Amino acid sequence: MEIITGGITAAKGFQAAATAAGIKYQNRMDMAMIVSQVPAASAGTFTTNVVQAAPVKWDRKLVTEESHARAVVVNAGIANACTGAEGMEYCQKTAEAVEHTLKIPANQVLVASTGVIGMQLPMEKLTLGIEAMAPQLEDSLESGHQAACAIMTTDTKAKEAAVTFQVEGKTVTVGGMCKGSGMIHPNMCTMLGFLTTDLAISKELLQEALREDIIDTYNMVSVDGDTSTNDTVLLLANGMAGNPEIIQKDENYRKFTEALHYVNTALAKMMAGDGEGATALFETRVIHADSKEHARTLAKSVICSSLTKAAIFGHDANWGRILCALGYSGVKFDPEAIELFFQSKSGRIQIYKDGTATDYSEEEATRILSEPEVTVLVDMKMGDAKAVAWGCDLTYDYVKINADYRS
Amino acid sequence: MEIITGGITAAKGFQAAATAAGIKYQNRMDMAMIVSQVPAASAGTFTTNVVQAAPVKWDRKLVTEESHARAVVVNAGIANACTGAEGMEYCQKTAEAVEHTLKIPANQVLVASTGVIGMQLPMEKLTLGIEAMAPQLEDSLESGHQAACAIMTTDTKAKEAAVTFQVEGKTVTVGGMCKGSGMIHPNMCTMLGFLTTDLAISKELLQEALREDIIDTYNMVSVDGDTSTNDTVLLLANGMAGNPEIIQKDENYRKFTEALHYVNTALAKMMAGDGEGATALFETRVIHADSKEHARTLAKSVICSSLTKAAIFGHDANWGRILCALGYSGVKFDPEAIELFFQSKSGRIQIYKDGTATDYSEEEATRILSEPEVTVLVDMKMGDAKAVAWGCDLTYDYVKINADYRS
């Protein structure tokens, strides 16, 4: 596996474009389109929220009922959630606009939206946006990057990743872009992820690979514990690498899942580190837990604790809050047995052992916690299971962004 | 039932004192003591965190194994949590200091601590504090108020409440004080509650009344979703009202539970409104849910949502975030059927109906949300169950307080 520069246009046969459609933001790009030269197998995972946005309903139906997809249209600014029958109609109309402009069947057009809930999309602007993007579609890395920029809301950086690997002598690429902050626990501004690959693989295995991988990647990210109505990850595989189609869980499938996992992990960490107002990526690694599920629960509990997140912002080695967050996670353990460490590129320090603080240097701990990526390592001393979760610190700017998001 | 001024000394035969013991804070009172003239039946509820502070272990044992208690010693500043065997020893020594000073058996002395985790208590200062408080014990309202002040950490106001009611011609009083912010979801600075009554009641019924009532009072408060290692509510009943002992769930028991519920609700609301950095008490009332448990879950989900809390701080009528928080609570419902309202003393406004926003005035909504007590009313349109939860807004000051709590 080789890490390469690029995003959704890295894989063969995928083009992208972006435009400033003026949907809600002014003077910036706010619409993007991804098009595969040939019909691609499609897979998707969606929010578990009871309240589901129109594009989520649209995509779930298409991914489930249709064998292929060819295009994805994304807008930032308005979420098209809580918009009733009118909202569903706009998904249909968006797909029809693509059909009309690019001769791609409407039932092969996926849609995604992010932004304010309860506002209707300005359909005319969307249609004009699609017409503007159609002639600009390109397979360049730059066009992929423009798309990654266009889908941002409160994100401060575009998020892209790509890798290549070999299957039966053919070079296969997996690339992707995303915006927002988490799948189970996303920022209201919604986690949207778009992945493309030129691998030939059956639709069933594609869906399974995606469903399995989000559990340990996007689902382990939390910015503020809220789950959006719009969270969506879509994965298209167009087969243009020319490999024999993967139809079983063989060595080639394993290589693909490894590549997919790399891209998803990279994107997940970018989201966590770019959480609203964040100044640091806050990682929690749980090792030696008694089960995988417990390891995940413990790691998530720590990165979701507002008190711990505020302490990370303050570069404060408040191990008591970490212990406390482990303690209310619902997982049973012996607080006297576990051990806690802080680590970053500035070093590693043990802060808790035998039921109480070690004799660590506060100064050293603060130095370690002052890096832009900080890890809490939790050794449960119980078994062999492990998990990693990613979050960010809780800052003044998180409050500022969310106190006046709509204004 | 009559609401009266007072706290833990309102009921007959209860004395209190406070002192500046210099445990961690300087130049303020940081220790309090409550003493009953006669042995009192005791009841307690404690944190569900796996990590439990030494005083929690001490009190749980005494409340379970001993028939009576006579004193409670509380300190602020150091939590005596994650302090190993030494921490347990300090509970014992504190009780022995009371035995030595006031001739109260050590096994009738409850203890409670709140503050920083992992630091050992300065035992000598605690002993001196007990010796200083002993001669100052008084049954005046002022001494109760001093105690309520002494147990505060990041609280900005002392929290006290009391009521009287009649049982067989005798006037019975229930009073209490608390500090912190919630039982299931408390601020790390810990929720501590102390209740006293001169009612004569069996220990079993006393415990049952307390256990039942915290579910709809303290357990419906959340400031930041974190659950402390030290959360404790203690209730002492010394029988000095002279009523015939309540030994069954009769009309007199019902009167008592009503009085207890009033005091607990009043204290719970004070805690929520005084959440760290809060500028507003944020209440969520769920009505017409299909079960009591679902009503509680839905109400809690809304008051725990960081995004909603930040919107309340910004006086922003962001009903989408409320709907979203209901949606990820885990309770199934039809988003098209429910209705949402904002209300405060400035009025009431319907903001959501039939799956989308009503045509409400943003200006009016902002005016309603600018009051110090704001309610979201959620009509689930499913059944007869209801619940209320209390939280606060998420502010810059919450971050500030928790980024540098230990410094």
UniProtKB/TrEMBL annotation, chains A, B:
Keyword field: Acyltransferase, Transferase
Transferase keyword on record: yes
Catalytic class of the enzyme: transferase
The enzyme's E.C. designation: 2.3.1.1, 2.3.1.35
Highest taxon above the source species: Bacteria
Designated name of the protein: Bifunctional glutamate N-acetyltransferase/amino-acid acetyltransferase ArgJ
Native organism: Petralouisia muris
Gene it is expressed from: argJ
